Amino acid sequence: MTNLLLDPDRLFPADPSQREITRDLYAGVKDLPIISPHGHTDPSWFAENKCFTDATSLLLIPDHYLFRMLYSQGISLESLGVPRVDGGPVETDMRKIWRVFANNYYLFRGTPSAMWMDHVFYEIFGLDEAFSPNTADAFYDHINAQLITDAFRPRALLDRFNIEVIATTEGAVDDLPHHRAIAGTPWAKRVVTTFRPDDAADPDREDFVQNVALLGEITGEDTTSWDGYLAAMQARRATFREFGATATDHGHPTALTADLSKKECDALFARCLSGEVSAADAELFRAQMLTEMAGMSLEDGMVMQIHPGSRRNVNAELFEKFGRDKGADIPSKTDYLDGLQALLNKFGNEPRLKIILFTLDETTYSRELAPLAGHYPCLKLGPPWWFHDSPEGMLRFRQQATETAGFYNTVGFNDDTRAFLSIPARHDVARRMDCRFLATLVSEGRLRLNEAEELSHDLAYGLAKQGYNL
After folding, report:
1. Which of the chain's ends, N or C, has fewer CB atoms near its CB within 10 Å?
2. What pTM does this model have?
């Protein structure tokens, strides 16, 4: 068996002098608390604080990073235990599924997923052998034996991982039962929610009309009218703020924004509620809603996150069988300069407004995103997101964005994950890569060492806390 022991200098530069600087910078930030301001962990974990059941349902089944790779190699989601929409049969033997994962773990060589999983195996579970078909059962039994202990309950792991605050993400019509359960306890300050209104703001969703009606029921507003609909959205934002929310999140296909007249909005909303909305109207409605939400953020102080550029659920057969978020969301070209023009013309010069831009289209870093964030007071750049939250992606981001936007028009790192146990690994990779980038600037005489030390702390901790008003 191959010993897994993680290289303490992993991801550091090969050049000896730069490596030494990186080591020193990393030593100063590696143990800082984790700010996790945007993610998709299940809030019931922290409300109920129950033991996780087994390695497979915790580490594999919820993680589309993992099963999308397996699916690409012809391994069915049914065989991996991923639930079907129709409740049809899937594999339920968790050990058998785990063995499939182990037999195919070699597929992840060179990927961030392997780096994160190895970190979880070694740092969290103390497994110092390589994960393979030969060690699959031993890993499974060892992990399961630890999961039933109090030390591995979700709240204990928040403490162990040194997570100062973690934000979950809930939709506009979510009643927030789990955040209600922890309200008034010390955990309410550490586990907060984020308002994601897409379920009632995207007319392309199959449940849009139903959700708009439900939004009215929840808030007591008349959501058959444009004014009532906006009032309902404002009411939901207020409720989310009661449960710790400091941010909103908008996962639109594009960055298009609009600034329509009241008359135009009334007519557009009516068409969207007809149940037979055109693609053009759906896009225009989403565009108007980004501008409306920016105005609401200016009023209530919530940070606005815009996540455009993902073509969602492109595998129609998979979507029909398994639903959303099953690894079939693909990056697409994104136009920020023209797309955001309507919003920026209206609110771009407002320093009290915070808008964090994310991208899946790396070609926009130096051409659009960095120049926009380097000019407009309301704009900040989110970290490399999703397909680019990798060592190479992080390095490309810093190289292409820093010269124009600087460091302080960015907001540190967020893990954006459902995979709870990988959060420390993801932040560790980000801290290593930022220290590596800073060490290069120091070695080239472009940054003083004391400046790099201050920056490394800000990139690992301070900017995220400040950027999200935490």
Report:
1. N
2. 0.96
